[in-house]
Amino acid sequence: MDSKQSGPLFRLFKLKIAADQRADFLAAGRQNLLTSIVDEPGTLAMYATHADEAGTENRVVEVYRDAPSYDVHAHSPQFAAFRTVAKQAVVQQEVVSLTPVLLLEQPQPLQVSTNVNQVVRLLEVTVKSGQAAAYRQVLLRTMQDVLATEPGTLTLKIGYVTSAPQKWVIFAVFQDVAAEQKHSQSAAFKQYQADSQPLVSQVTSTRLFSDTLVQQGGLVFKG
User: Fold this and answer.
1) Residue 3 domain-assigned (yes or no)
2) Residue 205 CB-half CA count within 13 A
3) Which is nearest to 33 in space by CA: 76, 90, 67?
4) Which pLDDT band holds residue 115 (cuts at 50, 70, 90)?
5) What total number of domains does the chain contain?
6) Which domain holds residue 188?
7) Is residue 172 part of a domain?
């Protein structure tokens, strides 16, 4: 981690875990997230999810206020306990460092540690060569006011892969299926689809299932 980096730290982890380690991994992750969001003011949001029925394909999204805040978390006892379990459980890992463009949360904190009604969606977008700036403008024009009109959209976090600026990530958590449907049928989202279509070459949409979701609440950042 570059301690000189300023602004929020935004990362996506893609973790494949051993099936027989799932229960220990889930419990350690839950303890890590629930403790960190209470004890660490600079840990702004952490979302632990899985993409498959067995729960071996995991996706974790993290946002920290800045590099020193990440350092606090990295040296915490709960992270040390999680890391010990993860060394046994994780068989494949990809860490995607993201440059944040739009980070939004509803005002209220979020602490969910059971797989209940929340709908989590991850979009991975590849933008055509030379179109990254135009795509960014489309996102800001259509998405920055979404949470104000959609109380069921709990968070919207958007950024591009720092090492590959043509690759973008859109991460959203909805209160329930109805809230996701409202978002997908909204004028703002339809405008986003229409305006972005000529700019993108590929979109992969993944429905994720929540394990533990936590956020401080109230985050508003535009990069």
Assistant:
1) no
2) 5
3) 76
4) low
5) 1
6) 9-218
7) yes
* CATH code for the domain in which residue 190 is found: 3.30.70.100
Q: What confidence tens digit (pLDDT) does each residue in 15-60 have?
A: 999 999 999 999 999 999 999 999 999 999 999 999 999 999 999 9
The DSSP string of the chain is: --TT--S-EEEEEEEEE-GGGHHHHHHHHHHHHHHHHHH-TTEEEEEEEESSTTS-EEEEEEEESSHHHHHHHHTSHHHHHHHHHHHHHEEEEEEEEEEEEEEEE-SS-EEE-S--S-EEEEEEEEEPTT-HHHHHHHHHHHHTTHHHH-TTEEEEEEEEETTEEEEEEEEEEESSHHHHHHHHTSHHHHHHHHHHGGGEEEEEEEEEEEEEEEE-S--EEE-
Chain centre to alpha carbon of residue 38? 19
Tokens, residue 50? 């899985």
Residue 100: other Cβ atoms inside 10 A: 19
Q: Is residue 4 part of a domain?
A: no
In a domain, 51, yes or no: yes
120 Cβ contact partners less than 8 Å away, ≥ 6 residues apart = 47, 49, 171, 172, 173, 174, 207, 208, 209, 210, 213
Give the tokens for residue 149.
């009109």
Torsion of CA 34, 36, 38, 39, to 10 degrees: 150
pTM (2 decimals)? 0.94
